[in-house]
Amino acid sequence: MPAVLIVEDEPRIAEPLVFALEREHFAVTHVTLGQDALNAVNGQPFDVMVLDVGLPDINGFEVLKQLRQRSELPVLFLTARQDEVDRILGLELGGDDYVTKPFSPREVVARIRAILKRSAPATPLSAHAGGELSWQVDEVGFRIFFRSEPLTLTRSEYRILAAMVQRPGQVFSRSHLLDICDSDEDSFERSVDTHIKTLRAKLRPLGGDQLIATRRGIGYVLEMP
Ligand code: CA
Question: Which CATH number fits domain 128-222: 1.10.10.10, 1.10.1240.10, 3.30.450.20, 3.40.710.10?
Answer without folding.
Answer: 1.10.10.10
